[in-house]
Specification:
5 strands; single chain; 2 helices; five-stranded mixed β-sheet; about 35% helix; elongated; alpha+beta; about 180 residues
Length: about 180
């Protein structure tokens, strides 16, 4: 049998469905790149907040060794003085006016606030610093220490055990360090 029908031509180019698929894939790649850029920017801001807290830890830890000397240059942060006049508020005021005057919260470009706790969902707390004093409990207690906010009136005439953390982009707590001041 000899038929003289012409064979059907097979298409070699992309079909309309192929073009739709390619457009969807390119859109997905563009969206992933855009969201990655946003995530990277937020991570950079969180890391800058963490570096702010680490700078405070370094300064306070270094000062811890020398602040009980009578000739310690930063009188507002000196230890061993009168508990009524030697307080955290004066020391913090001195630090923010001198050594850390250029410190900025990268989320709002203002000086960071020292808060009591992070609260997920409260976007106003992003990048803020949580500075807690750890007070040991009596021997035999179920909890070794109790943490509370270091307030301006707290005396710094004695050594303090402190904990520092920051609030990330979601206002979740990111612990930075425990140290002695």
């Amino acid at each position: 049998m000899n038929s003289s029908s012409t064979p059907t031509k097979v298409g070699t180019g992309p079909t309309f469905a192929d073009w739709i698929f390619i457009a969807v894939v390119l859109g997905a790649i563009a969206l992933v790149a855009y969201l990655g850029q946003i995530a990277f920017a937020n991570a950079q801001q969180t890391e800058t907040s963490k570096r702010n807290a680490e700078g405070l830890v370094t300064w306070l830890s270094t000062a811890s060794a020398d602040r009980f000397n009578p000739d310690y240059p930063v009188k507002a942060c000196a230890g061993g003085g009168d508990p009524k006049t030697s307080n955290w508020g004066a020391c913090l005021e001195h630090l923010l006016a001198n050594d850390f005057k250029s410190m900025q919260n990268p989320f709002n470009n203002k000086p960071p606030a020292f808060i009591e706790a992070c609260s997920p969902g409260d976007q106003s707390l992003r990048g803020e610093i949580v500075l807690l004093k750890n007070t040991p409990t009596p021997a035999g207690s179920a909890v070794a220490a109790v943490s509370s906010k270091l307030v301006a009136e707290d005396s710094i005439d004695q050594k303090l055990q402190l904990s520092i953390a920051i609030c990330d982009k979601g206002a979740y707590l990111v612990k930075v360090s425990d140290f002695e001041f």
